[in-house]
Write a structure and sequence with these properties.
- There is one protein chain.
- Helix content is 3%, strand content 37%.
- With 134 residues, the chain is an all-beta fold.
- It has a domain of 68 residues: OB fold (Dihydrolipoamide Acetyltransferase, E2P), CATH 2.40.50.
- The strands form three sheets. The protein has a four-stranded antiparallel sheet with strand order 3-10-8-5, with no helix packed on it. A four-stranded antiparallel sheet has the order 7-6-4-9, with no helix packed on it. It has a two-stranded antiparallel ribbon with strand order 1-2.
- The protein is elongated, with a radius of gyration of 25 Å.
Length: 134
């Protein structure tokens, strides 16, 4: 490929060889300790529903209908939910702060609070279980 470059008013014509890498380079390399998921085989169900929930570090799988996960990373600034409290869908559970913005976390379901996994001042990650329901 020939290119014309102008530098300080002087025109240069250069030949450039364009080569393709022998193996495709990944656009993202996960940090050490994180698993890389293999590509889904053709005809497999979309991974969106199953992969959207963050996996538990250990222990039994979590019933997604009985938990409230953090939609963002941030710091807990207020906790209004208490263990044993009866709640309705969309009741305020807690407030997170991220980048000087407060995000109100509401209950996705009606029920009773079984466990509050965070306290004021705790840092949380996106997908982390904040509150568990009975």
């Amino acid at each position: 490929m020939k290119l014309k470059l102008t530098i300080d008013g002087k025109v240069y014509e250069v030949d450039v060889d364009v080569s393709q890498p022998e193996t495709p380079q990944p656009g993202y390399v996960p940090p050490v300790g994180q698993a890389r998921l293999p590509a889904a085989p053709a005809g497999a169900a979309p991974a969106g529903a199953a992969a959207s929930a963050a996996p538990a570090a250990s222990g039994p799988p979590v019933d997604e209908n009985k938990v409230c996960r953090s939609p963002i990373s941030g710091v807990v600034v207020r906790v209004t939910a208490q263990v044993g409290q009866a709640i309705q869908a969309n009741d305020v559970l807690l407030v997170l702060e991220a980048m000087k913005m407060e995000t109100v976390i509401t209950s996705p379901v009606a029920g009773k609070v079984a466990k509050v996994n965070v306290n004021v001042g705790d840092p949380v990650k996106g997908g982390q279980v904040l509150v568990e329901f009975e």
